[in-house]
Amino acid sequence: MSVxxxxxxxxxxxxIIFVGLALLSLNWRQFEKQNTQxxxxxxxxxxDIPPSLAVTTQALGPIRxxxxxxxxxxxxxxxxxxxxxxxxxxxxxISLMQPKLAGVWNYQAWNMAWNLSATSATKKDKWKWIYNxxxxxxxxxxxxxxxNPDISLxxxxxxxxxxxxxxDASANYYKLRWALIMQDFFPTGERKDIIELVNAARSLEExxxxxxxxxxxxxxxxxxxxxxxxxxxxxxxxxxxEQAFWGEWQSKQGFSDIKxxxxxxxxxxxxxxxxxxxxEIDEIYGPLDWRLPQAHCIFYVARENRRxxxxxxxxxxxxxxxxxxxxxxxxxxxxxxxxxxxxxxNLNMINSTHNYLLKxxxxxxxxxxxxxxxxxxxxxxxxxxxxxxEDAKKxxxxxxxxxxxxxxxxxxxxxxxxxxxxxxYVTQKSANNTRSVILxxxxxxxxxxxxxxxxxxxxxxxxxxxxxxxxxxxxxKNEAKRLPPFNQMRxxxxxLMSADSYKGSQRIKDFAQKEQDGEKLEQVExxxxxxxxxxxSEQPKTEVPKELKTEE
Length: 552
Prior knowledge:
It contains 24 helices and two strands. By secondary structure, it is an all-alpha fold. It has a two-stranded antiparallel sheet with strand order 1-2. The longest helix is centred in the first third of the chain and has 40 residues, at about 1-40.
């Protein structure tokens, strides 16, 4: 009796198994076809593919696609449940089977840079996950997919949205951490850093042909010092023996050539930055400060800059123009310590950014007028605040013709624009409070004067005086609305910024005190940065920068 009952319960299970096997048999050819396509994507003879991946893919054979599809579904479920750690583990297993799929690398990096960083409690932990996302795509995703633009674009997106822009509340901390890494390779953030590395030897054979180098290398070998180690060229990493050797030989001819050789090699081996490609990008889109994320966004996005059938740029251009504009607005390191970073505009970016936007505006394919309008408004203010007065007026004339006159605004002067735009630029909270705007602008002048940037200090002082003069013309006769004399207002700020209660740095306090004691700002003459923007209607039709070669 019990035997028959067991047989009865087994029959339905057997039926399900047989049906499943039948279905699997019917679809087996489809699975094999899909696997063949996947295998074509994964060249197992490719030297970039490690043996472990090749063995994994071969061992699973025709069921590899089924297994990876199952893992994908499970990874999606885990992500929906916000189990990001487990989802990343699933994606990691998929990457072992299908390393040529861009989506698997982008998926993991996204979870690290956005989801896991968001769940971390401290800035340090958040940065760890963002940096891990960068390294995953850079070191593995692009290693196995060197010609895949989707990975490059997503990598550029991390640099742009998590670091370069200020959408993330901790973006300034991320900029600091990245700048400290890149500082070893680009110490000044200027083109001379790149030129020095471009001219470096690229092989040991070439290095040994440089005068003085063989002698230094021989002496180092005798002392047991590895001059070709990156750690040797970082002061905090040197042993006592290495420090003694450095002190004896660092001023000798050929020593700097050795350091440049090691720097170029480390930059390529560790950070996957080819210095020739860096130079090429910088010549077209720069000059950039390569210690900041804007430059690295442009590096990854521009090198995969695709075209459609008409030769126009594809959707990645928003990343480019945003990164270029951010490099102009806030793309130069003014001060960098282990704990803080101070940024200012990279004024040398004005020509490349302005001309790039002009080219995009000429393409009917794009609708960037709003972006261009905002950029040119800010450019006028930034140029003016840095004592490039004529450049600011030239940029305003371009803005006036291309934006204002097309909207029917004709009788609008440079002074009117400045007095409306300065409050928005200086402070958002007190945009309608003229006194607050003037005091805020004066404080900016004092800050930049303390930093030694006299051009910027004088520019902000001019801005404050411009607002004060315009206001007094309108309301100076009304005793209730009249402002104090400008010099009196400046003295008020100086006293506040030199007081013991002021929370700023001692450098600012000292500078404010010196000015109170009678030391005045040195006057800076106006000069020009712009190569001369022309009217848009007269701008000749030009091609956007040629597509850059992808690394083999």
